[in-house]
Amino acid sequence: MRSxxxxxxxxxxxxxxxxxxxxACSPNTEDVDVPExxxxxxxxxxxxxxxVPPDTTTSTxxxxxxxxxxxxxxxxxxxxxxxxxxxxxxxxxxxxxxQLWSAGVQEVSxxxxxxxxELVTExxxxxxxxxxxxxxGTMTVTYxxxxxxxxxDGTPISGADFxxxxxxxxxxxxxxxxxxxxxxxxxxxxxxxxxxxxxxxTVQYELLFGVIIPKHDVDGTDFLxxxxxxxxxxxxxxxxxxxxxxxxITAVRNENYWKTDPLTEQQLPYLDQVTFTFIEAPEELVAxxxxxxxxxxxxxxxxxxxxxxxxxxxxxxxxRIEVVPGPSWEHVNFQFGPGRLERNENSCNDVYxxxxxxxxxxxxxxLTDGLxxxxxxxxxxxxxxxxxSLSQDAWSQYPVDHQAAAQxxxxxxxxxxxxxxxxxSSTDDNDNRVKTAELxxxxxxxxxxxxxxxxxxxxxxLGNTISNGTWDLGEWAWHGPTGMTGLIRIHDQWDPAAPxxxxxxxxxxxxxxxSVTDESTxxxxxxxxxxxxxxxxxxxxxxxxxxxxxxxxxxxxxPLYGLPSVAAVWADxxxxxxxxxxxGYLWNVEFWYRTNLEE
Length: 599
Known about the structure:
- By secondary structure, this protein is α+β, with helices and mostly antiparallel strands.
- The protein has three domains: 66-102 and 234-318 and 571-599, D-Maltodextrin-Binding Protein, domain 2; 110-229, Dipeptide-binding Protein, Domain 1 (Dipeptide-binding Protein, domain 1, Alpha-Beta Complex); 325-563, Roll (Dipeptide-binding Protein, domain 3), CATH 3.10.105.10.
- Helices cover 26% and strands 18% of the residues.
- It contains 15 helices and 19 strands.
- Strands 1, 2, 9, 10, 11, 12, 13, 14, 15, 16 and 17 form an eleven-stranded mixed beta sheet that branches. A four-stranded antiparallel beta sheet has the order 5-6-8-7, covered by helices on one side.
- A hairpin with a 6-residue loop joins strand 3 and strand 4 (115-117).
- It starts with 11 loop residues before the first helix and ends in a 5-residue tail after the last strand.
């Protein structure tokens, strides 16, 4: 084992939502679409049973084998406040650590970015009978637990564990989000079965029970204090070993782990030990990786281009730097309410030709090249970060064309009777958004459209400006849970029937005080309601497709790019590493192996 040198007031009720960064697939934190303050379709959950696809070819050759043993040393800039992932505090690092020793109904594949089953035989759907809409309007969801799934002490994972998890979440004395869980009317369980009845059909069931608690180990303990610096029985590939406060957390092999590698038929995991070492300063974290004190690391998010380029230099020495689009996505958007005129008396957002001129002016490829040196590609649809296979890339219909933009700008002036112009607002504490404002200025100049940037303090912009609708053209990022749940929720942001403050349509597209109300806004309201009342995957796919096309055709906003997720690995030392931008790079840690042990 190698030695390691160890070297980190909400503004009223309306602003609270803007301060939360949801952890993907978190069972303990409400996953909501919120503006990201820093700066992928499963038509239905898949029923694949493993995170690595099996080799279906027939061969008499012996199966490839990986060596057991060794350690993987990970670097992180933040130390957790607690090891109890159900309690508030630093969800990012807790989610990473959770991959070592926790398991639940579902996980996110780093290959497809879709939900796949973990503790259950298949994810429940209407098609496979796991989801049933009852005659009384309720909905029943049923899980069949894998026979082989056991805790690290050999105790079978059972329906009683699911029931205990539910009761723990619903305990009013615990600070745990109960969203959707509080819609459960009744439960039933057996040795390898758990079912529950929800008050109404909702696709949000797909993210419930993401982490299961062992009843035999936790029942009778003080849930709020006994599990802060130790872990209950493990259902994951590793077992908690030691927390050296301020330095590192170590986990060792779970000898009773129930998964095997479908490609080699070997029991998992391959590694003996995984260590997290905490290095607060980003430059020291990168330096430790550069000196091979770390096998794996992810720079603090959002990663700076300079950090990415520094890491990329190491690829010639055996490192692999994986830069992939993350679940947070930036967009520019139009304000349709009367508040925009407080910012810009010549705002013409209500005129389609003006929005079209803006879409034809913004060169998203030039933006991503300027911000990320071509490491990130433009985003052609808001659907992609949630359910990639459902995306139609509907915004690809707007190629850059400054001449056409100038013509449409002239039409907007005629239609509105105003000297149309654009005032761009965003946060001034984000280097990428400051650079975006500069690049947009050059693009609008090329189209002959008057442009001005008015950047603001993040607290002001993400608070009063957004909630009051006092911007003209704005930029921020959305972040929400992956899968159909997140995709359906994001449509609430454009619901014409939900203006602020009671609703979350900050854009005020089609709301009662909107400058745009037409058959498209009426239809979108119908689509939004249907999305929230449908659980059949085929019906949902059709609704999503129509909603995406409608938003794109009306140019309600313009997607820019997915914020990059970056992870670095010494690929000449660690095999089977795949960066998962949603579940974290440890999503398949049970498959990691040390390549130097196979030489």
